Structures are given as C-alpha cells and as structure tokens.
Amino acid sequence: MPLRSSIRWLVVTPRLAVVAVGAAVAVGAALSAHPAGAGTVWRTGADPGAGLAGVVLVTSLVAGLPHGAVDIARLDGSWRRRAPIAGSYLLLSAAAVGIWLLQPLVTLLALLAVSVAHFGAADLELADAIGAAPDGRVRRFAVVVASGGLPVLLPLGLHGTAVLDVLDGLTGGRGVAVVQVCRALLPVLGVAVGLLVGDAVRRHRWHHVLDLTAVLVVFVAAAPLPAFAAYFGLWHAWRQTGLMIDADARALGVGHRTAGARLLRQAALPSLVGIAAVAVLAVVGDRTVLVWSLAAVLSLTVPHAALTGWITHRRGRRPSHTRSVSTGPTLRRQGGSPGGATDLRDFLGSTTRTGAPSDATMTAIRPPRSTVEGTTP
Ligand SMILES: CC1=C(/C=C/C(C)=C/C=C/C(C)=C/C=O)C(C)(C)CCC1
C-alpha cells in the first residue's frame, strides 16, 4: 500500500468525497448567490458584501501559503548552502516579471499553461501515489489536462469577463484575448474531463467522479476569484500538504502528527510574512494590488516548478539502491516501522513514474542530515 491509511482516508475515501461535494456545493452556491460572488471584490474590509469572499480568501491563504512557503525551508543543508538556491529562486521569478513587463499577453498565457501543468501534474502524482492513476499515456495526459485545466480554463473561459479589469491589468489591456483563448480551449477540457470521468466510472471509482464534479460545480457556480481561492486552499494546497506530511513521516520514521508539526514549524515564518504582506496590501491597496499579487504568485510558480523539476531530475539520476541504502538505515535507527524503507521505495517508485513536480517527495528524497552528509549535492 503506497500511502498510509490516514492519508488515504484524507484524500480518497468516498466518505470524504461526499463531505467535500456537500461543502463545495454549499460554498459555490453561497458564493454565487452572494454579492461577493460577482467577483468584483478585493478590499474585503471596505465592502459590506465582501465578508464571505474575505473568509474564503483568508482560508485559502492560510491553507495555501504553507505549501509553497516551504520550498526553500525543506531543502537540505545549512542556510549558507540554501542561500544561493533561494537567490536563484527569487531571480527566476524576477526574470519572469521582467519578461512579463516586455511581453505581458504572451507571458500571462505561458504562465497559465505552466499553472495547468502544475495543478495537473500534482493531481497525477497524487493519483499515482494512491494507486488510482489510469493506465496508458493518453489517459494519464487527460488527468493532467482535466485536473489542471478545470481550475484555470473554466474560471477564465466561462467567467473571465467578471475579472476583465484584472486581466487587462495583467496584459496591458488585452484581457479579452486571454478570455478568448481560454474559451477556445474549453472543448479540449471537456474531452479530457469526459475521458477521465469515463475511466473513473468504468473502474467504479465513484469518489473521483464526485471529486471532479465538486471542482466543476465550484468553478461553474462561483465567480473566478473566490472559486480559485477555494480550489487553491481546499483542494490543491490541502492535498499537497497531506502528501508532504506523509512523505516526511516515512522519511523520518515518525507519526503524521509529528511530521505535521515539523512542517508547520518550517512553514510558519515564510507563511506569516506572506499572510502579513497580503493583509497589509489588502487594507491599504486597491485593485492594482490584486493585479500585482497575482503577477507575483504566477511568477513564483516558475521557480517553484523549476525547483521541483530539478529535485525530480536529481532523484531520477540517483540509482535506486543509493536511495534505499541512504534512507533505510535512517528509518531503522530512528525507530521507523519495520518495512519502512520498502514503503518509501514503493512511494518513490510510484511517483517517479509521473515525472511530475514533486513537492511531496522533497523530503522523501532527502534523508535526515546525519546520515547523508556528503551524499547530497
Ligand atoms: C489570472 C487570473 C486567475 C488565475 C490565476 C492562476 C492560474 C494562478 C496560479 C497559481 C499557481 C499555479 C500557484 C502554485 O502553487 C484567476 C484567479 C482564476 C482569476 C483572476 C485572474
């Protein structure tokens, strides 16, 4: 069994899917019925109708920021070793902003494509980890297109005009082109979702059908901004965080609670800084702040994807026996469960197949420092 039971319960049981669908429908319906659902609200404190959108935004920030904030914190080594990587991380996103200023429309479209790939690959990685990914290249590609396309193409293609001012701000006045491109791609999304649902129905994976339906309902019913915030915090980041905790628990041979607390400690400072910055900007800023915040998030996706890709590549180059040799003794010495090394190898094996960005395996490929001194680059 690739993942521990608690994580399986967390991400795949029909029970949770039913709760998720109920919650998603309630949130989606409330958002669309609420004035905030018009998607025109940013200054949550200034608009009396913005309370619900504010709650969703804050929830998604609190749930969502830690999963990205730990990118650097989870890397191995001292801060002196991590500093160049942190510097490159910021340089890469600054470069993206620079190119954006020169070619706004093309850059936004490219970053939206990166987002589709990022969200889709993350879901394929999860599906692989729990043994739920479909077989065959076409169906696996359909997972990426459907899971990644739903949160990007649907809000922009269906309700893009509700955030036209934001899109105009991001593209130097060519927001309509973004909506048109996303709208033109909706049939492709439809085919991919159809393939995925067909596969899930054939394999009697009803919770996956419900899960996809929930995401679909949120993005069809709610305005782009609150819908995306709900997706980011309640689906993407939540699941990625769950996988990271599981990977940490395995690599360190500790329980999920300990691994969760450790991740929380790693994420606390960068998350707090991020949340404080957004809170200050939300209070003092206007809609321009939203444009710049989105530009920052999308630009940070570039080094985020590059870093996770580099880690996946590094793991791929390392012979599998090296991985298990360096990890196994650690788990045993730390009192990990018998067979822990095998489980970890299974876990790595199942995620390697995807070739996808691997937030979840960042710690898994990096055993505790004491045992790998000199083996990590
Ligand atoms: C442009 C734009 C949107 C898309 C934002 C995206 C696609 C963000 C991607 C973030 C990622 C990939 C984070 C990684 O962890 C919204 C909110 C739908 C509507 C407003 C305009």
TrEMBL record:
The keyword GTP-binding does not apply. This is Probable beta-carotene 15,15'-dioxygenase. GO terms for biological process: carotene catabolic process. GO terms for molecular function: beta-carotene 15,15'-dioxygenase activity; carotenoid dioxygenase activity; iron ion binding. GO terms for cellular component: plasma membrane. It is a multi-pass membrane protein. It is found in: Cell membrane. Belongs to the Brp/Blh beta-carotene diooxygenase family. Pfam families: BCD (PF15461). It comes from Nakamurella endophytica. Residues 313-377 are annotated as: Disordered. It catalyses: all-trans-beta-carotene + O2 = 2 all-trans-retinal. Keywords: Cell membrane, Dioxygenase, Iron, Membrane, Metal-binding, Oxidoreductase, Transmembrane, Transmembrane helix. Catalyzes the cleavage of beta-carotene at its central double bond (15,15') to yield two molecules of all-trans-retinal. Its cofactor is Fe(2+). The chain crosses the membrane at residues 48-68, 89-121, 141-164, 176-197, 209-234, 267-284, 290-311. Its EC number is 1.13.11.63.
